[in-house]
Amino acid sequence: MSTQNTLEHKIDKADLEGKQEYTITVYAENRIGLLNRIAIIFSKRKINIESLNTSPSEIDGIHRFNIVIHESYEVLRKLARQIEKQIEVLKVYFNTNDEIIWQELALYKVSTDEIAEKVTVERLLRQYGASAVVIRKDYTVFAVTGHREETDALVKALEPYELIEFVRSARVAIIKDSAGFHEKLKEFEAFEPGEELVENEFLEKGEKIFTM
Amino acid sequence: METAQETIQQTGAKAETSKTLFKGTGSQVLLNGLIEEGVTTIFGYPGGAIMPIYDALYDYADKLEHILVRHEQGGIHAAQGFARASGKVGVCFATSGPGATNLVTGLADAQIDSTPLVCITGQVFAHLLGTDAFQETDVINITTPVTKWNYQVTDAKEIQEVLAKAFYIAKSGRPGPVLIDITKNAQIQLEEFPEYVKCNHIRSYRPKPKVRVEYIEQAAELINGAKKPFVLFGQGVILGKAEKEFKAFIEKAGIPAAWTIMGEGAIPTAHPLNVGMLGMHGNYGPNVLTNEADVIIAIGMRFDDRVTGRLDKYAKQAKIVHLDIDPAEIDKNVKAEVGVWGDCKETLPLLTNLVNENKHEEWLAKFRQYNQEEIDQVITPELYPTSDEMTMGEVLRNINEICGGEAVIVTDVGQHQMVACRYAKFNNTRSNITSGGLGTMGFGLPAAIGAKYGAPDKTVIAIIGDGGFQMTPQELGTIMQFGAAVKILILNNRFLGMVRQWQQLFHDKRYSFVNITSPDFVALAKSYYIEAAKVDERANLRQALETMINHEGSYLLEVMVGRENNVFPMVPQGMSVSEIRLK
Question: What's the whole-model pTM score?
Fold first, then answer.
């Protein structure tokens, strides 16, 4: 898989033991109950899921989970293997934030009067790249797509101006160095795993491994 | 049906179906499927939501033997005993609600000990799901953490594919329990069914990783360079049916091998390279020398905390080679220098080819030295006690002398379990059946019943404590009705012995609720028309054991043993394996 070949992922001791944000990408069959099977792998170890998104993937019939947790590399590796062990899971990747492109969507409901009256609010919205989704007499709903810090910053900025309601979606992420799952799927569908299917990736890559 | 087609797609089973259609109910097609999978024996208990399956079973009495247990927990433990003794998939039936929840302990036990099971539970009608109907429980969600796979069938057309998948998943790769929950409407649904097709592929499931030769080479290089190599083996050798391959490996490389209690019997107790048991109550040498070995080769074992003791003081000097079929086990508890992923049936012969012939005489002599010390200080006093009180060890010694290592020994959990594992002799694989990972008291009696069906030509002895026996005594009724010739040996010390031992050693002898009384076990057995006797004097022990073992049919023998005997050696919890205590 080209993902592993091109990636220069430095792991030092601090990385192994220190906690940081990881995004897990799970390719799985679309089956009732699988979400629970995956979720209990985290709850069994008392690990909080910061964000979870399920969506279709680039392949018809195969679903993709994005799970964000704050843990160490060592813990991630073990979790990934436990998830990949589930019968309906095809493959699990986990990445640090610099290895992925990711977005979250946030919606903000504010009083229309406040915005109309206070120019600063309008400026704020421009500054944060917000777009108006709904404008009514009583309230306006804005949407912002971006990283957590960006959507958070707007919440903070809107606080003095009657932020009526706020909601943020789970994270969706694309792995920078991934060539997609089509080739991998062919290997999975083959009765006999081919030479390409390197199950022992972790050991092969030694220090440079970033997926399992 | 969309779901049925999807399952076919996922199993990779050939979609073209034979023209010979079978017209019948979901229940009938389920039973036909079980027969196709080679099932002969089912342990179960009927109830409302599984009645259509039982109704169909009425006509299958000549093909499927159904053992009516006395409690669903007994049913699943029996299925476990059957699977462990026979190497086949154990099958049990239970109804919805309480029937299904009673399976949970057995599922957890089978999951942690990698026992292949297919459990079928009835469920309320599909249209009643989520209405809190009578005897409705969310069995799928309750059992998710304790099953390798589970599935709820709501349409009879799914049954064949799901059953085929269930058997394939249960027995392939690292085995485990599978549960199929079938709603009542699917059981009675009348359909035309195609021919049953066994499953041999699921696209999202890799039962075993592909063997990579470079890791075998790296492992061989480490082994060939080792001065003090040490093999630790677990149940993986037995589950992989790789006993011969394993023996060939250790014999060529001349490496001492020690077992986890789940791996016991994979090679005969008397094998010169078998140096004994690992872990908390294991042998002296294997524990101490774990911290002296330079290369440790772990085969089909998972470095359970009862084996490793304190992890940060465990084999820090050694380079670890870990062979396992489950990638999640490698580097889970102990970091491996070389991880050899794969089925040991395939990896061991490759490794054997590459390792040099060796003897390691000096290193082996060290094990013998420690063994002698253990014999003098622990084993001889246990097997040949001088006090009036009988010991569990001397009972085991007598069993060894009578059975010569040919019996299947099923144990419950506690002191007697540790003593049985330490002292029982085994000539054959699949002879030691015990609840290893979960430590389920109450496992012994029902598992022994199952083991007798799984190994009908063997003498099956259930060794059980007075505490554990009182957890599942109802299965005496199953023996009474179906006549499984199980020899039940109760080692009665009138205490919950293992907990008492810990309270003595670590809680200032504050014996908190370990003083357990027992009924008249002999009278109890006799009330079930099972022959029984009690021994409280050494003079009668041998004769009583011979009577039990030679008796045709089931027999219960209660042996009164010393009240406050402790199992030693012992690695106290939180201590290193090299800090093992002999007393």
Answer: 0.92
